[in-house]
Amino acid sequence: MTEHPKPTYSLNQLLLYFFKLGYTGFGGPVALVGYMHRDLIEKNQWISEKEYKEGLALAQLAPGPLATQLCIYLGYVHYGIIGATLCGIAFVIPSFIMVVVIGIVYKLFGGLPWMQAVFYGVGAAVIGIVAMSSYKLTTKSLSKINVAAIKDKWLLWIFYIVAATITIITQSEYILVFIAAGFIYMFIKSPPKWINNSSALSLVLFAAIGFWQFNLNTLEQIAWFFTKAGAFVFGSGLAIVPFLHSGVVTEYHWLSEKQFVDAVAVAMITPGPVVITVGFIGYLVAGFPGACVAALATFLPCYLFTIIPAPYFKKISKNNSIKAFVDGITAAVIGALVGAVVIIGIRSIIDIPTAIIAIVSILALIYIKKIQEPYIILVAAIIGLILKSVL
């Protein structure tokens, strides 16, 4: 059934990797997809560059959280639906447990002032981490940053810059930009044969306190709202924040403005997918059942949108026209991710100390080869607490 070579790793090894990434992977979608590239392609060589690029393109085409979709696809590559399902669960479960525990603490103590102090340092360090990850993704997926390489891949670089610019200006990501980049590059690089045929083929685009406090009506509202969030919001965790705000604060009045800001802070300082903040929000609204319903409603659509087109995507991926289509989309996708880094950076680098923390984090990743990101996050959190206590 699969056209991919026999795997050199077991499903248990892959599950253990994604479980570990779920509790150590800080930095949001940009950093997480970078970690997957580093660990699964460069280090262990379990996944090929081609398979990774296909997964990244498919993950961006489908609605839902980018890093989780890529995780599901990579689980599918060699182990089918079982691999996709178990990898997705292994990746999400650790951060889900963390946000529920933080939700319990939040309800017990009525606020997270200490967390805001932690985020002061962590947010800056995260910018350094995601900046390095996006740089590596750029050089791996487009070309090296020199005149000759850029000249050779000039059109992909245009897609990259345009997508980054649109993301920065609009603070959102548009699937039509990615699809347009894919089609333009395909038509220029390797036009499909059916274009010259009189009868064109029809293509389908893929397309404690409050623990049990809830009522069924609220759970139904949570299920419907978060299903829409998972099914209709494209791109990174950054893209889902405005959608969540309009529903959670403005429409349903489940949370106050301050509580919503705290929820975003929880998402940023916990490892795993940023979108796991839905678990925290669900807990505040309707206890543990609310957290479960919100998380399931958000992640189920992205799971279905990934595994349903996956087998067809794999079968046609050897076609030169499809390869060009994927290359075009990938360039735009990574450009949009870089744009997201800029937006997060503007919000997180608010003064000289945070700028210094971000720069030092980048330098540490460049010059201290064996340093792990969680250690940088821990040091930044301590620095944030110290600075906020003396300032």
Structural description of this entry:
By secondary structure, the protein is an all-alpha fold. It has a domain at 11-193 and 303-390. The protein has 16 helices and no strands. Helix 3 (49-61) crosses helix 4 (66-109), helix 7 packs parallel to helix 14 (320-348) and helix 8 (175-189) runs antiparallel to helix 14 (320-348). The radius of gyration is 21 Å and the shape is globular.
| Distance separating the two termini | 62 Å
| CA radius of gyration | 21 Å
Q: Write the element-wise H/E pattern from the N-terminal end onward.
A: HHHHHHHHHHHHHHHH
Global shape: globular
Mean pLDDT value: 80
Protein topology:
Elements: H1 11-24, H2 28-43, H3 49-61, H4 66-109, H5 113-141, H6 147-152, H7 154-170, H8 175-189, H9 216-232, H10 237-251, H11 257-269, H12 277-307, H13 310-316, H14 320-348, H15 352-367, H16 373-390
Helix pairs in contact: 1-4, 2-4, 2-5, 3-4, 3-14, 4-12, 5-11, 5-14, 5-15, 5-16, 7-8, 7-14, 8-14, 9-12, 11-12
